[in-house]
Amino acid sequence: MKYRFEQADAVHEIDVQPTEGGYVVRGKGGEPQSIQLRTRSDGSQLAITPWGEFILSSARRGAEVWAELGGRRLSARVERARPSALGTGNGASLGAVRAPMAGKLLRVSVAVGDVVTASQPVAVIEAMKMENELLAPIAGVVTEALATAPSTVEKGALVVRVEPR
Question: How far apart are CA 69 and CA 82, in angstroms?
């Protein structure tokens, strides 16, 4: 899912995709970062990131989020920007591009064997008279292009699968 958060007059957009052991987070640069969360006996979480391990305690009320991370107290306003490629929650979902909503698949712009970059547009779905671009979640090679355009697709339908190179 895409999220937008505001903190100290700065606005950031990130894409968060669940995986079997945690999440893949992609920020402004588009480079995927793996983050694992483990719940501790006191209710806090251990966040295992490329930048180290951190103890995280957090709370949320509506769009307001408060967190204590590494002895620092943080607050932000977080909103879901729009759905992105939905995973199934297992490791195979990392490169899956799924329909974020039911709609009409207008075009698929890649074919099996094509090399794609992370965040490259691979398909377009029309829903409620709005066109929604589906982006490659990772850089790699297209191994499946299951849907053909024009056609209707259900929410969560696999449109394209990308395998890392």
Answer: 27
Q: Say what the pTM is.
A: 0.48
Kind of pairing, strands 52-61 and 64-69?
antiparallel
Task: Supply angle C-alpha 88, 94, 97, rounded to 5.
Answer: 75
Name the token pair of 138: 């990772």
Q: Which DSSP letter does residue 41 get?
A: T
Q: What is the DSSP letter of 48?
A: E
Q: Taking the chain, what is the end-to-end CA distance rounded to the nearest angstrom?
A: 24
Instruction: Return the H-helix or E-strand segment holding 32.
Output: strand 32-39
Confidence of residue 106 (pLDDT cuts 50, 70, 90): very high
Q: Does residue 29 come out as left (phi exceeding 0), alpha (psi in the -120 to 50 range) or beta?
A: alpha
Helix (H) or strand (E) holding 137, with range, is none
All structural domains of the chain, each given as residue ranges with its CATH number in brackets, are: 2-82 (3.30.700.30), 91-163 (2.40.50.100)
pLDDT for position 90? 46
Angstrom distance (rounded) from CA 75 to CA 108: 40
